[in-house]
Amino acid sequence: GRSIPSPVENHRPHQVLPALNPYSSSRDLRLLLDLLATKAGTGIALRCLAGLETDLADSWAPTGVQLETEEGTLVIYWKDPIVMSYMPSCVVKVHYGVEVEIPGYKTQTRIISHEEVRFMKQTWRANNPSAVELGADDDFIYHEHFSGFSVLYPCTVQVWTIVNGQLVSSAERRILGTELFHDGLHTGSSHDGL
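Above: the chain's sequence. Below: its structure in token form.
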């Protein structure tokens, strides 16, 4: 017959490669970030960690940022950061900041609540089940309209992820003036003035 092997005595896994995440590789940093999160909130601790670890910042950046124009209105589309697919929305309070800037001319900024937009989508589905197909819940696309902007003028579009009141990461698109787009990604640490 078959027998169940007995466990190896004193077997402990050992790490072959060094940890990439500063939070897990440094006990001191882990203690400081845990104290910061306890005293000032998880948002500021995530912001600090995103400034130290680019992979973490990338996982909190809004994804799929797209730009379109409709009769003098610039429409910006984006999706949740990758990390939101692994985390229940009740764990953190997420907002998105959207800013469109024409250097030297004008800037418009909007703040969008992740929770409110999701609630409106669920309400619409419940009240109008056959009126429109909104897609799967995990494939939700946010959008925001900015009037008075044209792709004829160079401008910068940033979509920020704000976690518990702190800017953690952002994605950026630049319009060079002739509908040419340039992608960029910035962590929260480069936006200290915000």
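The first strand starts at residue 63 and ends at 70.
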